[in-house]
Write a structure and sequence with these properties.
The protein has 1015 residues and is mostly beta strands. The protein has 12 helices and 61 strands.
Length: 1015
């Protein structure tokens, strides 16, 4: 036994390109058997070793028992062994393929299970490991069973010859690194262990071994053929038949049975028997994302006496996927991919995602108008596909291949030694997932360049499954190995020339001579931190240009791991927080959801952009609004939701109507406005669409779409409630009106205190502000090992914007009347000898308590555009609620506000803080007419709206903190009032991506606000 163990390990299969598995059974679609699978999930005995040479041969002895227990499935790094490593591109090990470090951590698992004696009497017993990373050896009862690689596909072994009735002992050695590591260089936490389900299956001796389902539709989609190819495990299938019965719920639609058709040879060289059955279906109910109709297939193997030897059951979705005239079609309709990339990840269980979390994700996706998921960057657990079939999500099934860290990237994918490895990762994925209607596209992997191996695998895919297109971004997004142009982070109008692989704009891609393929962004809209500025621009383009068919946002959920300290406190960790090197810090935090799966504000923008109802305001030739249209973007189902619209005139609701929609696919409904509206007043029309009934994942009365039309919309300025008419007394640099005292510091020129009835209202003076706590998009790749001098943050730092010196140039107080005093100031802000800003203010202090502030700013145009031009102050009040009139109710920024509506909002103070794991500026509200924060009321001056955020944290603290748990609430609140605020960007997070129209590049800026302080 010892020699056997040593000999097996000495082969170093994990470094041999010629060994991908030993004794692993061929891949097949999911099969069902009479016996319910026996789950081996639970607590297994576990030992951790720094390398495989430390594993004693005695470990194989049944009496060698570890006292440590570890949950299966899990990653051992999350159980306290070893450390997770987060890298985006760089390999976590020295790059010497196929070799890995000698200190290659090993997890040694032991588990005892009981086997019923009847399982040994007939048939076979197989074990399936659905996900183990990155390679493993298996023993049962001291007998070596086999070896397997590829962490994201099942490994099945026949244990029959090694089992006994009663207690059986499984031993598994899992290696952290293998040659496969070089093909699993995805942007994720690098962890290891048995992280998916482990199951035992009892199989009948004579059985169906595999089957495929194809659905063919005629040109009118009136007739379908369900074509089944079935294989058995028996050497001589003459006399056997396979019977197929298709059910529509309980009703039999069609049945047929056939004998042996042809003989083929499987990948092991064993003869398999091939049966073909074609089931005609008249007027089929088609499967799509909107109408995920599933039939039930019952497939039975009959022996020569007509006895049923084995029956499998499989849901069947009848649908057709094709590319015609430069468009991707499902059931003859050009689809818009409302997609997102998704890693298998949770903050507490790492790679293991249970069914409840899958359902939670699908619910959020459906409720936010997603219809597609790219399984980035590997095949997912099988249950995800079953749920996608059931609930209606299009899937891009992606092979577990990424060599991003190689230079050049196609070094390995061009190497014929690795063609078998790549081939297994593609072919086994297809063999497992072929029968899922949700899988509409195959992917050859991610970021692996373009090599000869890709060409070979593309050809195999097209021959094996001509019913689905192939999408692969490597080699420039338009290589010969893709049926769909699949760029990453291409911008709508801006080309990004690159010496090796140009990144054209979307508009240029579809205009390239001779290029007729559809374009789907394989990744776009990098949702890192406070991001997704300019997102609507993509959807305007998708709706305008037929060959632009959507894309997949990067990505679904922040990959932040919950880290618990010795004192029990927990916080979300990113790269480097476990001492892991190399690391790419918080580049793991780029989801639409926070690590706990609560939505980020940007998800509201996505939901709005992707909504299935589009509204347009109609005007007559004189420009007067006469009505609006609502168009359904559903392609396959009738829209039966409920539309409600309300017309407000001068802020008062004058008309409301509710309509139950009955729109055919793509139909448009026109609705006229009342003819007696007073168009001399400000008119706003608010529209919402809610579900009429419960559906599988979306409840009744759930808002699925909204719109707001603003016609002559005013800023809704509200009058101050301060006591009018007080006589103003000027006492030095104090201005006194009744019980209020406003103090200006004659040395600094700042309004430093505002006292009402003896209570000081300010904790920090009213000051100019030109910076923000940098967003991830501001910092760019400066967050990782490289410093990008072109990033906004580096440019701001180089210009000294975070360390400006203020000089007072002018300060005077000018009484105008008994009830009006002007305070005039001028400041310059400089770094070293360079003056970056000159700011002139006029404070008009009124006897009724108002202070009008007019601000003129001149900036040095050779300096980088600032993040904001505005004011900041710290208020002593910490109100429970904040009232404002502006865009909301959620966080919005100048380039991410399409989903917001302009209205009055009264919200808890906590709602103005967005808990980004890596702190930054957050919580902004734009186009604000007025806001009340405790005692202070701020109103737009001259009807020019402003932006604001109100937080318990200063910009300085947000700037300094590296994790949100490091933030500590400060006294009172910080109120930031911006006349202008730059966008957040988000086309990507590693280059400046804020569109020019959202940058503060002008030389002169003017804004104004009115302040009024209440007791």
């Amino acid at each position: 036994m010892t020699d056997n163990f040593d000999q097996i390990i000495a082969r170093k299969d994990w470094e041999n390109p010629g060994v991908l598995h030993v004794n692993r059974l061929p891949m097949h679609t999911k099969m069902t058997y009479d016996e319910t699978p026996h789950s081996l999930n639970g607590h297994w005995q576990f030992q951790y070793f720094k390398n495989i040479n430390e594993v004693p041969a005695a470990w194989l002895d049944d009496d060698f028992v570890s006292t440590d227990l570890i949950p299966v499935p899990s990653n051992w790094q999350l159980a306290g062994y070893d450390a997770p490593i987060y890298t985006n591109v760089a390999y976590p090990i020295p790059v010497t393929p196929p070799f890995v470090p000698a200190d290659n951590p090993v997890g040694a698992y032991t588990h005892v299970f009981d086997l019923p004696a009847e399982w040994l009497a007939t048939g076979e017993t197989h074990i399936t490991f659905h996900g183990v990373g990155s390679a493993f050896y298996l023993w049962v009862n001291g007998t070596w069973i086999g070896y397997s690689e590829d962490s994201r596909l099942p490994a099945e072994f026949d244990l029959s010859a090694s089992l006994v009735a009663g207690a059986n002992v499984i031993k598994v050695l899992v290696l952290r690194w293998s040659k496969g590591t070089y093909f699993e260089d995805q942007d994720m936490w690098r962890m290891s262990g048995i992280f998916r389900d482990v199951e035992l299956h009892h199989l009948p001796t004579v059985r169906l071994a595999d089957f495929t389902i194809n659905t063919d539709l005629d040109a009118d989609f009136d007739d379908a053929k369900v074509v089944i190819k079935a294989f058995t495990n028996i050497a001589d299938a003459s006399g056997y038949q396979v019977q197929a019965a298709l059910y529509d719920h309980e009703e039999l639609v069609v049945t047929d049975k056939q004998g042996i058709d042809t003989q083929v040879v499987d990948e092991r060289g064993y003869d398999q028997k091939h049966f073909t059955i074609t089931l005609p279906v008249r007027q089929p109910k088609l499967w799509s994302d909107e109408t995920p109709y599933l039939y039930d297939l019952q497939l039975s193997l009959l022996d020569d006496a007509g006895n049923v030897r084995h029956t499998v059951r499989q849901p069947v979705g009848i649908r057709q996927v094709s590319i015609e005239n430069g468009q991707l079609l499902v059931n003859g309709q050009a689809v818009l991919i409302r997609g997102v990339n998704k890693h298998e990840f949770t903050a507490t269980t790492g790679y293991y995602v249970d069914e409840a979390t899958m359902r939670q994700d699908m619910t959020l996706m459906k409720q936010n108008n997603f219809n597609a998921v790219r399984l980035s960057h590997y095949p997912n657990a099988q249950r995800w596909y079953e749920l996608a079939d059931e609930y209606g999500l299009y899937l891009v099934d992606e092979a577990n291949i990424e060599t991003h860290g190689m230079t050049p990237m196609n070094t390995l994918t061009n190497d014929p030694r690795y063609l078998p490895l790549m081939s297994e990762r593609v072919t086994r994925m297809v063999q497992r997932d072929f029968n899922h209607p949700s899988v509409i596209i195959w992917s050859l992997g991610n970021e692996s360049g373009y090599g000869h191996n890709h060409a070979a695998l593309y050809n195999w895919l097209k021959q094996t499954d001509p019913s689905r297109p192939v999408m692969y971004e490597g080699g420039g997004a338009n290589s010969p190995a893709t049926d769909i142009i699949a760029p990453m982070y291409a911008r709508v109008e801006q080309d990004q020339p690159d010496p090796s692989v140009p990144k054209w704009s979307l508009k240029k891609w579809i205009g390239l001579p001779g290029e007729q393929r559809p374009l789907i962004l394989v990744e776009y809209a990098h949702s890192m931190g406070n991001s997704l500025g300019g997102f609507m621009k993509y959807w305007d383009a998708f709706r305008k240009y037929p060959r632009l068919q959507g894309g997949f946002i990067w990505d679904w959920v922040d990959q932040g791991l919950l880290k618990t300290e010795a004192d029990g406190t927990s916080w979300y960790a990113y790269g480097g927080d476990f001492g892991d090197t190399p690391n790419d810090r918080q580049f793991s935090l780029d989801g639409l959801l926070f690590p706990d799966r609560t939505p980020k504000p940007a998800l509201q923008e996505v939901k709005y952009a992707q909504q299935y109802y589009q509204f347009k305001l109609q005007r007559n030739p004189q420009g007067v609004a006469t009505g609006f249209t609502v168009q359904s973007e559903f392609l396959f189902k009738q829209a039966t939701d409920v539309l409600t619209y309300t017309i407000l005139v001068a802020g008062n609701a004058v008309f409301t109507d509710t309509i139950t929609l009955t729109l055919a696919p793509a139909e448009t409904l026109a609705i006229a406005l009342p003819t007696d509206l007073d168009y001399s007043q400000d008119i706003v029309i608010n529209l919402t669409v809610h579900t009429a009934t419960d559906t599988a994942l979306v409840p009744a009365d759930f808002e699925v779409a909204h719109e707001q039309f603003r016609i002559n919309a005013a800023n809704n300025i509200i009058a101050t409630t301060a006591t009018p008419g007080a006589t103003i007394v000027v006492a030095g640099s104090d201005i006194v009106l009744g019980e209020q005292r406003i103090h200006f510091d004659a040395t600094s020129g700042e309004l430093t205190q505002w006292t009402v009835a003896g209570a000081d209202k300010l904790l920090h003076p009213l000051a100019d502000q030109f910076t923000r706590a940098p967003l991830d998009n501001d910092i760019g790749v400066s967050e990782v090992e490289h410093v990008d001098p072109n990033s906004w943050y580096e440019r701001w730092q180089a210009a000294g914007m975070y360390e400006l010196t203020k000089n007072l140039i002018a300060f005077d107080i000018v009484p105008v009347r008994d009830d009006l005093v002007y305070v005039n100031t001028q400041h310059t802000y400089h770094h070293t000898v360079s003056t970056l800003f000159t700011v002139t203010k006029q404070y008009a202090v009124h006897g009724d308590g108002r202070v009008d502030i007019e601000v003129d700013v001149t900036r040095q145009t050779s300096a980088p555009a600032p993040a904001r031009i505005g004011l900041t102050l710290q208020l002593a009040d910490k109100p429970e609620r904040v009232h404002y009139y502006g865009n909301g109710p959620f966080e919005n920024y100048p380039d991410r506000q399409a989903a917001a509506i302009r209205a009055p909002f009264d919200l808890p103070l906590a709602d103005f803080y967005t808990p980004y794991v890596f702190p930054s500026d957050n919580g902004l509200r734009t186009e604000v007419a007025n806001v009340t924060v405790g005692s202070l009321q701020v109103t737009a001056l001259h009807r020019q709206p402003f932006d604001f955020n109100v937080l318990e944290y200063s910009q300085a603290q947000l700037h300094q903190a590296k994790h949100r748990h490091e933030l500590h609430a400060e006294p009172g609140v910080w109120l930031n009032i911006d006349g202008y605020h730059m966008g957040v960007g988000g086309d990507d997070s590693w280059s400046p991506s804020v569109a020019p129209e959202y940058l503060l590049t002008a030389e002169h800026y003017h804004y104004g606000v009115t302040l009024a302080m209440q007791d």
